[in-house]
Amino acid sequence: MVRILVTNAGSTSLKLRVVEDDDRVIETADLDPPGASLRDQLRRFLTSVGSVDAIGHRVVHGGIRFTDPVLIDPGTRAELDAVSDLAPLHNPPALAAIDALTHLAPNVPAVVCFDTAFHRSLKAASSTYALPKVWVDRWGVRRFGFHGLSCEWSVGRAAGLLERPADSLRLVICHLGGGASVTATANGSSVDTTMGFTPTEGLVMATRPGDVDPGAIAWLSSRGVGPDELMDALERRSGLLALSDGLSGDMRVLLEHRAQGDPAAMLAVEIYVHRLRAKIAAMAAATEGTDALVFTAGVGEHASEIRADTCRHLSWLGISIDDAANRSVNAEDVDISVDDADIRTLVIHAREELVVAAGCRRVLS
Predict the structure, then answer these.
(1) At 77, which CATH number?
(2) Distance of CA 119 to the CA centre of its chain
């Protein structure tokens, strides 16, 4: 039985999962963000779980270079540094985990799987910015898309729930976590998505603003706001955190305060849902019709109020959910639509670790 250790580095934690051949997760741990103690934490985890046969790493941004899972070697590792500044909340922690495990388990083969890879199918109409060609040619400025591992899992699970082949489905997938995006898929492939060159574009997120007029950013720069301050604000001090006057970027906290009548929390959630509905409609247009709307990731799986608020104003698309089914979602993937809904609404639990494990097996076989 092959045992694969999967690492999933986020901005606030490092998730570890040991996956066996039958996709059973037999060991789990959520570590603190990579820091001085990371190597010690990983050493203790490896000691507790025993030997592993391979290691799979989720890396958010693969840039132009990486469009498939790849075996880690010194050359690959050096190339990953070149795209780290495009996803500063995620790539550096992932690279820290890669380096620590390379030191601790130098003889265990390791594979990197990229969130951007699923979106390699984007056509030029979806991936190209209307910017000077010299910027595009020299710097590779284009739309990449993210949350691809989650989308890949959702496509497969939606096919199972709907009992239809994945390549026959048109889906709108809402990955709603600390980072958030909406992706349109057709025939099992990505055709459009809300995130772009970096994971900052698109929806309002926990600490990222989503879409902002680039003219406003240029204007702030002309007023003396430097690039470091701009990036820090856009990555760590915007989004729900900013809209709630610094209360929290955590949707659970905001929903609690909204219920208590907190006006800042109420506005933050209203803006979040307003943007989400608009992006769902845009992605439905990209698929030229939709068979199912999917909610996944932390907010998508657990915040029944967000699902209800979002779907309540999408009846014109053919979306209608059953209130009781929506409120009773548990650990199972489920269809929460009313019986006669034209578009099915699914809640699918993200299992990125299984997609990474599958990528490892493909590369190592």
Answers:
(1) 3.30.420.40
(2) 12
Angle formed at CA 145 by CA 354 and CA 152, multiple of 5 degrees: 25
**pLDDT over 90 (residue 39):** no
Residue 346 carries which DSSP code?
Answer: E
pLDDT at residue 54 greater than cutoff 90? yes
Q: Which amino acid is at 240?
A: L
Residues 127 and 195 sit within 8 Å (Cβ to Cβ): no
Active-site annotation holder among 115, 262, 333, 335: 115
The bridge status of strand 14-19 relative to strand 4-9 is: antiparallel
Average pLDDT estimate for 27-56: 86
In the predicted model, what is the mean pLDDT of residues 323-342?
96
272 and 332 together in one domain: yes
Query: What is the pairing mode between strands 25-31 and 14-19?
Result: antiparallel
Q: 115 catalytic, yes or no?
A: yes
195 shares a domain with 336: yes
Query: Residue 249's domain spans which residues?
Result: 148-347
Do both 73 and 190 map to the same domain? no
Q: How far, in Å, CA of 236 to CA of 214, rounded?
A: 18
In a domain, 323, yes or no: yes
Same domain, residue pair 233 and 322: yes
**How many whole angstroms separate alpha carbon 119 and alpha carbon 182?**
12
192 with 308, same domain? yes
DSSP labels, 158-213? HHHHHTS-GGG-EEEEEEESSSEEEEEEETTEEEEES--SSTTSSS--SS---S--
- Residue 361 resides in a domain: no
Specify which residues 175 forms β-bridges with.
Answer: 181, 296
334 three-state secondary structure: strand
Contacts 24+ apart (CB under 8 A), 227-232: 231/88
pTM for this model (two decimals): 0.94
Domain count, the chain: 2
CB atoms within 10 A of CB 340: 7
Residue 360 lies in a domain: no
> In the chain, how many H helices and how many E strands?
15, 12
